[in-house]
Every structure is written in structure tokens, then in C-alpha cells.
Amino acid sequence: MSYLLKNATMPNGSKADLAIHDSHFVAVSSLPKDHQVIDLAGKQVLPGLVDLHTHLREPGFEESETVATGSLSAVRGGFTAISAMANTSPVADTAGVVEQVYRLGQAAGLCDVFPIGAVTEGLNGQTLSEIGAMADSAARVRVFSDDGKCVFDPLIMRRALEYVKKFDGVIAQHAQEPTLTQDAQMNEGAMSAQLGLKGWPAVAEEAIIARDVLLAEHTKSRLHICHLTTAGGVEIIRWAKARGIQVTAEVTPHHLLLTDDYAKNYDPIFKVNPPLRLESDVLALRAGLADGTIDIVATDHAPHSSESKDCEWSVASFGMVGLETALSIVIKTMVETGAMNYEAVAQRLSIAPARIARYENHGQVLEVGSVANLTVVDTAAKWVVDRDLMSTRSKNTPFHGFELPGVVTHTFFSGKLVFGG
Ligand SMILES: [Zn+2]
């Protein structure tokens, strides 16, 4: 199929016509005669969004999400590449499991699904998994994470950082000091005291970030910090980058908007790991994302069945779905506030995550010769989030009923129109 996309607003604000033939952007003059014309007047285009942190739940928890339903949710949200976290059942800690997930992604055919490999066997925190075999597999894994659990043992963390250097990999750390957060339910502060829920102090996150940036410096390896949530964490990353340490960091959309005040009615839809923090943290995260201290936005899309969310706070699962609302939350918190323009949005949601994970066909400049991974957004349009209309198999969005800016109208993956039109 061939497309001529007319009058698109490019990330830098200029206007352009874009031509797609087969899987690539081509010169308008070289389009075959039978191409389809789509008028994008007034619409913003972005390189296809790339998520570095997606829980797809397959294999093992298909009642919450599958690779196929997660892929559909992704392209509705404008993503053309997602990264399947390893905490499935079985855990993605062998070449066999990562190849299975990779092939399920190819079979769904809507976007690239890149598996993340577990750092330790069965996420046990004690024995390194088959990191080399996963890197050499058909899935060519470059990102390794025990996400959901912290790689707590500093010797294991050091060895993992050393190991992935061989093939330019990166360790993505879920920074949560386990003894400081035992049985913790939400951010530790005035709200947790008022609600009588066990608190989760900021220092439990920051202590691991501080340790690991020093380990990354010592090993001269690449470290990525998942879902940063505290002002202090932003300061540590800023310090580490100034020292030349190879560290990158992500923030989730929900941590850019929500605070622990939302927990006040004990509604577990707001229960998430790491927890919602304070207004001062939200502002520090926005400032860090705007100035590039925080490299990317990643969804931490975490689908859960209604049974595990429609219950008492203390027994509910941690996590929120996020693929279909991520871009709108970024527009609301970063663009509409004047903190970022669309060139920066393209950086933080596509170019930088593709670079960190070495996803070669993603995060490219929208020009002749590039693979046609493209998201089209009507930035002037608003929509009301309705959990029952979403494509994810789970309903656990904290944004149900929110009116948000920015409607994704088309997603092209490798030249194919996979959503909209
Ligand atoms: Zn995590």
C-alpha cells in the first residue's frame, strides 16, 4: 500500500507532505499512481512512539492481557514498538521464552514487541539468568530487568552490568530497597499516616538509584532507572549525568499527573508500584523531563483483572494500564503547561527510548529512506477516557472519566496503517 499524507505538521512545527511506499518513506515523486491520499491539515505527526516498559502478561496471565491485545492497545495509543517485561509465567529468563514472546508479537503484526530479559533466574535476585543466550536469540534482547522486583544484591547487579557490556546491553532497574518497603502500601507521608496504611519512603527508591549509578560508573556500563518518582531521585540522576555516568531514566505518565492525595478514598485504582508521591515530586519530575535529566516517558502499562483491583486496598494488586492514555497525559502535563514542545515529545517518547534499547527501525527522523513508523495526533481534539472502550483486556485505568487532550488518529507501523483512517 502507498500513502500520500498531505499538510502534516512535523515535530519541529514545519508543514510537509509525507509519502509512504511499502515499508518506507519515499519521495512524493516516486509514489505509484494508485496511492491513497490522507489530508492531515491541522494534525501533528510524530515518529512512532516507543515504550520501554510494558507488561503484556503472556505467557501465564492471559486473562489480564495478551501480546495481541497489548499490541492493539499500543497502536491505539500511537506506539509502534513496545517492550515486554519479563515478569510473566514462566519468567522470560531463557532464550526460549523471549523468542516465544517475540514471535507472538510478530504474529499479532501490529507493532514491534521486543522482549526484555530477566536479570536473574525466575526473578529470584540470586542467580544470573541466561543473559548471553537471550542476547544471541532471535529476539536479540538488549534490555534486561527484574522489574516488579529490585535487583537488590549489589554483587549480582555488578555482574549483570559487566555482562551486558559485551553486546551493548543495558540493565533496567526497578529501584526499591526491599527491607525499607516491606508490606508498604503507598507513599510514606501525611496521607499514609492519615489513612493508616504502611508507608513507602522516598529514600527506599533513592538509596538504590544512588548505589546503582555508582556501580554503573565503576563498571563503565549502561544503567537505566525505571519509573523515577521522587525529587531526590531526579537530583541523583542529574548529579550522575554531570559526572559522565552512563545512566538514563524514565518517568511514567501517572507520576507526571497524580499525587498520593488520590489514595484518600482507599480506591485501589490508585495503588501502584512505585507509589504516587507528592506535588513537589510531580513538579520535580516534570522539570527533570523538560530539561532532559529524565530521558524518556515509559508507560509501565500494568494490566490487572477486575478481581485483583476491585477489592480492599491492602490486598489489591499494584499497577495501572497506560498505553492508550500516555500521549494525552504528556500533552496535558508537559505541552499544555509550556514545559515541552512536540520536538521534545518526539525525543522523550520515541527517539530516546529507541536509542536506549537499540531499536534500530524506531525513533528515526521522518525523512525519505526511514522506516515508516508514524503516529498522527489531533492535538486540538479532546476525549473522555472510558475504560470500557479501551483495547487493553484490563480496565484498571486511573483516568476513567478524565477529559484529556490529544486524539491519536492514525498509526503506521512499517508502512502499514495499523490503526485509524
Ligand atoms: Zn517496576
Plain-language structure description:
- 29% of the residues lie in helices and 21% in strands.
- α4 packs across α6 and α7 packs parallel to α9.
- The strands form five sheets. A five-stranded parallel β-sheet has the order 9-10-13-14-15. It has a four-stranded mixed β-sheet with strand order 3-2-1-4, with no helix packed on it.
- The protein is of the alpha/beta class.
- The protein has one domain: Metal-dependent hydrolases (TIM Barrel), CATH 3.20.20.
- The longest helix is centred in the middle third of the chain and has 18 residues.
- It binds zinc ion (ZN).
Topology:
Elements lengths: L1 E8 L5 E7 L2 E3 L9 E4 L4 E4 L1 E6 L12 H10 L2 E6 L10 H14 L3 E4 L15 H6 L6 E2 L9 H11 L5 E4 L12 E2 L2 H6 L3 E2 L1 H18 L3 E3 L5 H12 L4 E5 L1 H5 L21 H13 L4 E2 L28 H10 L6 H16 L16 E11 L18 E11 L2 E5 L1
Parallel strand pairs: 1-4, 6-7, 7-8, 9-10, 10-13, 11-12, 13-14, 14-15
Antiparallel strand pairs: 1-2, 2-3, 5-16, 16-17, 17-18
Helix pairs in contact: 4-6, 6-7, 7-9
The structure holds zinc ion.
Zinc ion binds next to loops.
Task: Count all strands and give the number.
Answer: 18
Poorly predicted regions: none
* Count of all domains: 1
Distance between the termini: 13 Å
Specify the biggest β-sheet: 5 strands, parallel
Average predicted confidence as pLDDT: 98
Level of helix content?
25-40%
Structural class by SSE content: alpha/beta
Q: What is the second-level CATH architecture?
A: Alpha-Beta Barrel
Can you identify the CATH superfamily? Metal-dependent hydrolases
What small molecules does the structure contain?
zinc ion
* CATH class category label: Alpha Beta
Please count the helical segments. 11
Strand fraction equals 15-25%
How big is the Rg?
20 Å
Could you say what the CATH topology is called? TIM Barrel
What's the shape? globular
